[in-house]
Amino acid sequence: MEFRILGPLALTTGEPGVLGGNRERKILAALILLANQSVTTDFLIDVIWQDSPPHTARQQVQNCVGAVRSRLRRHGVSAEISRRSTSYRLQIAEDQADVLVFRRLCEQADEFAARGDIDAGVARLQTALDLWQGHVLEDVDSAALAGHVTALEEDRIRAIELYVRLEMSRRRARAVLPGLSGWARQYPYHEGLHCSLAEALRTAGRTADAVQVLHELRRRLRDDLGIEAGTPVLELGHRLLGRPQRVRVPAVALPAGTLPAGTLPAGTLPAGTLPAGSDDLVRTIESAMSSLSTVLELLTREDRLV
After folding, report:
1. Where are the beta strands (DSSP E) in the chain?
2. Same structural domain, 114 and 197
3. CA–CA gap between residue 185 and residue 190 (Å, rounded)
4. Which CATH number is 20's domain given?
5. Rounded to 5°, angle at Cα 265 from 263 and 266
6. What is the overall mean pLDDT for the chain?
7. Triad 94, 155, 237: Cα angle to 5°
8. 70 and 104 assigned to the same domain
9. Contact at 8 Å (CB) between 201 and 177?
């Protein structure tokens, strides 16, 4: 592989000056990210200057592409940057870029998993995930590339989640913990990855650590982003603690006189509706009804502590 973007932008030639200046790096990053696809000049202008391009932007893009092409050729990189009308294309083989290899391996893993060949699926995913050296193009700052970068990061997360599911189906919870812990650190707000980590910890007999993972996730979401964790996180937390998910029912105060005619006051039952000799049962039911609000309040306080 000569082109790497699953982490910092890099070429395997190892030559320190092969990537060029900031503008050339951004153009090369865009061409690799969209390898074997047409990339318009307008898009490359956005990649470099965003909303404030100079009036010479098109000519500068052409000059930068020419400089990138010359650098690749001079350093022995086998790749062709072709131009057609108002677009450019980096034409490379599938095994020349880590992003292309990653996508191919993920497709193969999906196919193996669908056929029930778990071992082959896991092997492909391990190889695919090992290609990553950080976040996509983590040293290239361009808002125009953000959507493509995010989509590729989401592909990585889907591969991680499939890998974990397959390994868990082979009862290999302990084996996935080191990698999964590292991925959860790289995506500190991703609820799905943290739920997977908590499930793996629980399966490995580390329930206390699993509870702590979800507790810290909820704290980060609340303190850093100002949001609460979603239902899957809350439900998993309750399962880890051995209790069912509680549903909070807010109290509603009704104005006096709004209850329909015949509505009973709280804590009473109509006479004659139970068989004779049911006095003890009636008292038990009335006592439970009168203390319902207290029980609900206790449950609410308990949930706040989880």
Report:
1. 3-4, 10-11, 39-40, 80-84, 87-91
2. yes
3. 9
4. 1.10.10.10
5. 120
6. 84
7. 155
8. no
9. yes
Taking every pair of Cα atoms in the chain, the longest distance, rounded to a whole number of angstroms, is 101
In this model, does residue 81 exceed pLDDT 50?
A: yes
Q: Are residues 164 and 127 in the same domain?
A: yes
Please give the structure tokens belonging to residue 35. 């390898």
Domain annotation covers residue 152: yes
- Residue 179's closest CA among 227, 137, 122? 122
Q: What is the token pair recorded at 161? A: 């989640």
Sequence-distant (≥ 6) Cβ neighbours of residue 188 within 8 angstroms: 217, 220
Q: 59 with 12, same domain?
A: yes
Note if the pTM is more than 0.85: no
Q: What is the C-alpha separation between 137 and 30, in angstroms, rounded?
A: 10
Are 47 and 135 part of one and the same domain? no
Considering 93, 111, 145, which residue would you say is the last residue of a domain?
A: 93
pLDDT in tens, 21-64: 899 999 999 999 999 999 999 999 999 998 889 999 999 999 99
CA angle 181, 156, 184 (to 5 degrees): 20
- The two tokens of residue 253 are 């105060």
What CATH code is carried by the domain that includes residue 156? 1.25.40.10
Q: What is the pLDDT of residues 173-217, one digit of tens each?
A: 999 999 999 999 999 999 999 999 999 999 999 999 999 999 999
Q: 60 and 127, same structural domain?
A: no
Point out the least confidently predicted range of 6-20, 79-93, 94-108, 236-250.
Answer: 236-250
* Residue 132: domain span: 98-207
- Residues 41, 18: one domain? yes
Q: Are 110 and 98 in contact (CB under 8 A)?
A: no
The Cα–Cα gap between 100 and 1 comes to 10
Task: Give me the number of domains the chain comprises.
Answer: 2
